[in-house]
What does this fold into?
Amino acid sequence: MTEARVTVDGEVVGEIGPGLCAFVGVTHDDGVEQARKLATKLWGLRVLDDDRGVMNRSISEVGGAILVVSQFTLYGDTSRGRRPSWIAAARPEHAEPLVDAVVEELRGLGAEVATGRFRADMRVALVNDGPVTVILEV
It folds into this structure.
């Protein structure tokens, strides 16, 4: 990804240049261990091009940034009917500290991290290079 930003009520609350935009969803049985694993996986995920144009480098190697955006809708169940069910998504009081834990773990690893704003009506804009989009489950 070449750039991404989150705005809330017209204010830019998080913005990065080249790097990763990570939409983070939390479910009921997720805990701090899953947050740590996700951060470690994001930090070392080899999805960035090397000198030959092969996806062989990670943020930890190239020094890009990571924009972390909480996204409960990732747990939307669309298997029945036309309206998704959000039952699998964790309640905000459970999810927010875990999204924060992902951010803090990434920063502890040395990542430059920007974020959205939890429980806000966010506008997310990104330029997805490639495009490359990967689903990570830990």
In short: The mean pLDDT is 96. Strands lie at 3-8, 11-16, 19-24, 48-49, 55-57, 65-70, 112-115, 122-127. Residues 92-109 form the longest helix (18 residues). DSSP finds three helices and eight strands in the chain.
